[in-house]
């Protein structure tokens, strides 16, 4: 298990921005891919963005062009910059690693609420 702590969520108006952070513990952060997921009420958890250990990013179509995933290996922290937010982005946002996904481990996430 890799311990991960999400932060940065909150309430924002449509069109606004938020920056989420995911702080990791342990020594494997720099060599593992990282992921942002989200789960809206009544919906399945979905993959939002992926970043490889070398910094290559992949996005879901629903957020491409609006969200930017990044990582700072020295700080063992991953970020999700969210711009042009809309109510459909309202969800609990989770970060995770391949190891934690295989183990079925999820943290508590951070709540993002976008008002109309």
What is the strand and helix layout of this fold?
Elements: E1 4-7, E2 10-13, E3 18-24, E4 34-39, E5 46-51, E6 57-59, E7 67-72, E8 77-82, E9 91-97, H1 98-103, E10 110-115
Summarize this, please?
This protein has one helix and ten strands.
Describe it for me?
With 116 residues, the protein is mainly beta. Helix content is 5%, strand content 47%. The protein is built from 1 helix and 10 strands; from the N terminus they run βββββββββαβ. It has one helix at 98-103, and strands at residues 4-7, 10-13, 18-24, 34-39, 46-51, 57-59, 67-72, 77-82, 91-97, 110-115. A 6-stranded mixed beta sheet has the order 2-10-9-4-5-6. The radius of gyration is 13 Å and the shape is globular. The mean pLDDT is 96.
Rg calculated over all Cα atoms? 13 Å
Q: Give me the secondary-structure category.
A: mainly beta
Largest sheet: 6 strands, mixed
Strand-residue fraction? over 45%
Strand order of the largest sheet: 2-10-9-4-5-6
Question: What string, H for helix and E for strand, traces the elements in order?
Answer: EEEEEEEEEHE
Helix count? Answer: 1
The whole-number mean of residue pLDDT values reads: 96
> In percent, how helical is the residue content?
under 10%
Which parts are unreliable, with pLDDT below 50 for 5 consecutive residues or more? none
N-to-C CA distance: 38 Å
Task: List its salient traits.
116 residues; four-stranded antiparallel beta sheet; single chain; mainly beta; six-stranded mixed beta sheet; 47% strand; 5% helix; 1 helix
């Amino acid at each position: 298990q890799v311990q991960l702590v999400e932060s940065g969520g909150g309430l924002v108006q449509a069109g606004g921005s938020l920056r989420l952070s995911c702080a990791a513990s342990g020594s494997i952060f720099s060599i593992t891919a990282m992921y942002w997921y989200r789960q809206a009420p009544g919906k399945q958890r979905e993959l939002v963005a992926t970043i490889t250990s070398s910094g290559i990013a992949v996005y879901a179509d629903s957020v491409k062009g609006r969200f930017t995933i990044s990582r700072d290996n020295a700080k063992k922290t991953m970020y999700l910059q969210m711009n042009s937010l809309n109510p459909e982005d309202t969800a609990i946002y989770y970060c995770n690693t391949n190891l934690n996904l295989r183990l079925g481990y999820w943290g508590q996430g951070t709540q993002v609420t976008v008002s109309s």
